[in-house]
Design a protein that fits this description.
Blueprint: H1 3-11, E1 20-29, E2 32-40, H2 47-60, E3 71-74, E4 83-88, H3 95-106, E5 121-129, E6 135-142, E7 147-148, E8 154-156, E9 161-163, E10 168-169, E11 177-180, E12 183-186, H4 190-194, H5 197-213, H6 221-228, H7 233-236, H8 242-250, H9 252-262, H10 277-287, E13 291-293, E14 300-302
Parallel strand pairs: 3-4
Antiparallel strand pairs: 1-2, 1-5, 4-12, 5-6, 6-11, 7-10, 8-9, 11-12, 13-14
Length: about 300
């Protein structure tokens, strides 16, 4: 997926003439992440269609929001705001949560009225036409409660202005997450909240930490577990590179060279010293592709994210 291909998705939004709106509530209930939805009926004809046309223009019109994005990349845990992060729906980071979310969207809870529903987001649902005539579903999520209480705001009732006594439903001129085709596209880090991704990448971290420990390249396994699983490190493990681990496990010359280049202190028997917090951080950054060598002087540099050179 390229930025231009993503722009073409916005261009196709006007091919859908039947948009629907759902309120969404998500979060932990009794230590389990769950979702609930509630359908919203808007009786004003073409209101959602006109809103979607406006939203598309906000993103791909002159000086649109898409101008602030430089590329679409596979999700790697980085927080670079100029990237749209793509994750396949089958990826373990989102697959379990997506299954629950899809079930909730298909089976909305219609008890009570919409104003009684404690929404934490809303989703616009539609179908767009592809170039080959096929139709594909698209879902746009905005992670915010859409209800607003308008203070000191008055409406005309045909005779005079009166205070608006009830909450209003206000759709925002942005969205955070798109589900289209077989993937999730995150336009902001709010998408991580939608899929409870902190839980997921902490599990990835735990698994990878044990994989590292099992190689025998560390001087202190328990201390490594403690430091490698804390702070910002769990997010880094999303980009863990098994090839790097196998290389430093099986090639002692390479292991020593990387230690020298990245300032990783070594212990006895050419292991990596994992008793020191800063040293553990260097090991994690190297294994998770957050540490690279400058091609000019071969000095180590820290990077937020990386991909294959093209």
């Amino acid at each position: 997926m390229t930025i231009q291909e993503m722009r073409s998705v916005f261009e196709k939004l006007n091919t859908c003439q039947e948009w629907s709106l759902q309120l969404l509530k998500f979060g932990k209930v009794r230590n389990e992440f769950s979702y609930n939805t509630h359908n919203v009926t808007i009786t004003t004809q073409n209101a959602l269609t006109e809103f979607m046309e406006s939203l598309a223009d906000i993103y791909i019109g002159r000086n649109g929001k898409m101008d602030s994005f430089q590329e679409v990349v596979d999700y790697d845990g980085s927080t670079i705001g100029s990237r749209i992060h793509r994750i396949e729906l089958t990826n373990p980071l989102v697959s379990e949560s997506y299954g629950k979310l899809a079930t909730a969207m298909d089976s909305p809870d219609m008890a009570g009225n919409a104003l009684e529903f404690s929404a934490s987001a809303y989703v616009l649902k539609g179908s767009i036409e592809e170039g080959d005539g096929a139709v594909s579903d698209i879902r746009l999520f905005t992670i915010i409660n859409p209800f607003k209480t308008l203070k000191h705001t008055f409406s005309w009732d045909g005779d005079s202005f009166k205070v608006i006594p009830t909450k209003t439903l206000a759709l925002r001129q942005h969205f955070d997450v798109m589900i289209w085709g077989d993937a999730v596209y995150m336009f902001s880090l709010s998408g991580e909240k939608l899929f409870d991704m902190e839980r997921a990448y902490r599990q990835v971290c735990a698994n990878k930490v044990e994989e590292i420990v099992c190689t025998g390249i560390l001087s202190d396994d328990e201390t490594f577990r403690q430091y490698a699983s804390s702070g910002y490190n769990p997010r880094r493990f999303v980009a863990f590179d098994s090839n790097r681990l196998q290389k430093i496990k099986n090639d002692i010359v390479f292991r020593n060279k990387m230690a020298e280049k990245f300032g990783i202190i070594q212990g006895d028997n050419e292991t990596y010293d994992s008793s020191d917090k800063d040293n553990v951080e260097r090991i994690v950054k190297f294994l998770c592709k957050k540490g690279m060598l400058d091609p000019v002087d071969e000095n180590p540099v820290e990077v937020e994210g990386s991909k294959q050179w093209r």
